[in-house]
Design brief:
The strands form three sheets. Strands 4-3-2-1-9-8-7-6-5 form a nine-stranded antiparallel sheet, with no helix packed on it. An eight-stranded mixed sheet has the order 10-11-15-12-16-17-18-19, sandwiched between helices. Strand 1 and strand 2 form a beta hairpin. The chain is an alpha+beta fold and 449 residues long. The chain folds into three domains: 94 residues, Quinohemoprotein amine dehydrogenase alpha subunit, domain 2 (Lipocalin), CATH 2.40.128; 232 residues, Alpha/Beta hydrolase fold, catalytic domain (Rossmann fold), CATH 3.40.50.1820; 87 residues, no CATH class. The protein contains eleven helices and 19 strands. Helix 4 runs antiparallel to helix 5, helix 5 runs antiparallel to helix 6 and helix 6 packs across helix 7. The N and C termini lie far apart (46 Å). The longest helix is centred in the middle third of the chain and has 18 residues.
Amino acid sequence: MKKKVVFLMMLLWVIINPGNISAQVQDKWEGDILILGNSLHFEIDFDKQEHGVMNVPAQGASGLRLNRKEIQNDSIFFLVDSGRSNMRFEGKITHDDSIQGRFLQSGYSGKFKLYRQKEAMTHSGVNREVKFYNDTIKLAGTLSLPDTNKKHPAVIMISGSGQQDRDENVFGFKVFKEMAPAFIDKGFAVLRYDDRGTGGSDYGNPEDCDTRDFADDARAAFQFLKQHPNINNENIGILGHSEGGMIAPMVADDHNVGFIILMAAPTVPGKDLLLRQTERILETMDFSEEEITRRKNINEEIYDEVMKENTDTSIIKQSFQKLSQSGELTIDSAAMQAQMTQQMKAVLSPWIQFFLSYNPAPQLKTLDIPVLALFGKKDVQVDSQQNKILIRDMIDQGKENYTLKIFPHANHLFQHADTGSMQEYQQLPKEFTDGFLKYITNWAEQAVR
C-alpha cells in the first residue's frame, strides 16, 4: 500500500462527440499531469479511431476516447467524460512540438504538458499488423521482420500481469517496443501482441481468466508463427516478462519452442513471491520493521484464506480492515471503503487464486532447451535473491542449458534504478540499464546457431 493516495482520474466509458481536429495536433503525444503534488504520465493519439484516444498506463487505462475537441488558432480544449468525473484540458500549442496548460477534475486543478512523440527508425525492418486466434478470441499484434526475402528465427514477447498492450507500456516506458529493434537488428523476427481485453484484441473476459488462459493465448501466437512463410519454425523462442516468464515455460513444456528468455520471472510459489514483494516494497517506502512484519502477517492471513476451498470473505474483509489501521496512513473513510472493495475483488479473482498456489519450479526443471534467466538486483516485485536460487541450483547440478544473469542496478523493468521502488518507474529515463539489450540479443543469437 502507498502512504499517499494518488489523485487519479476515475475513467470508465467515455461519451463521444466526434469532431475534426487541426492538422497541427495530429499524431501521438505524451506527457504528464501535475496535480496534488503527484505526476501522472499519459498519452494522447489524436488520430486513432477518428475521435482520438487517451492512455493512462499507470492505471491500466487505454483507448479512452476524447470528447468535445476544439481548436482555435494556438488554443486547444478537449474533454474526457467518464460519467462519474469530467476531465478538462485547456492548453496552448507551441511550435507544433508541445502543448501545455491547465487540467481540471472534480474541483481539483493542475497543470499538464504534452510533447509530440518522435518515432525513430532504429532498424530497417518491415512491420506487419497481424491477427491470430485462440479459439474464437482474436488477438492483434505487430510482427516485425528483418526482411521478407527469407525465413528468420523469431521471438514472441509475453507481457506481465494485467492487461498490457503490445508495447508493454508501463508508466510510459514501452518495454517491448524498445526491445524489438535490438532483436530485429540481430536477424530475429519479433511478434508483440495486445493482451485480450486491450488494444486491437478481443475482450475475452480477462477478469474470469487466470495464467493458464493467457498461456493459451501465447500458444496461439506460437502456432501462428509456426505457419508463417518468413519464420524458421524450428527457431521460435519466447521472451516472458514477470508473469510472462511463468507463461513461457508452460508453452515450452508442450510445444517445440526453440529457447526462452525469462525477464524477472517468478520461480517460487505465488504466495511466497507476494509476501517477499510486500517486504521489499515497504522497505523502499521507509516503513518500520515492525510495521512491515505486521502487514506481511496480515497479507499471509488473506492469502491463506483465499487459497482455501471454501473461502470466508468476512475473514478477508476483517484482515483488510486491520491493514488500514495505521497511523502512517491518512485516508478518508469513503476512499478507504472504495479501496477495500477493489482489493476484495482483486483477491477473490480467478487469477490471484491460481497465482497464489502455482509453483513454476517443476516445469522449469524439465526444460532441456536454452533458457536465459534475467533478474534485476533492485527489483522489488520479483526479488532476485529469492528467485535466482532455483536457477543457480540447476546450473550447479550441471544443467548447461540454463544461463543466469543479474543486473546489479536494475529494477523490475530493467531500468537503471536508485532504490528499485515502483514509484521510481515513471521518473527514471525510459531506457534499459547499460548492457541489457546487448547481453540478451547476443545470447539469443548463440541459442539459434
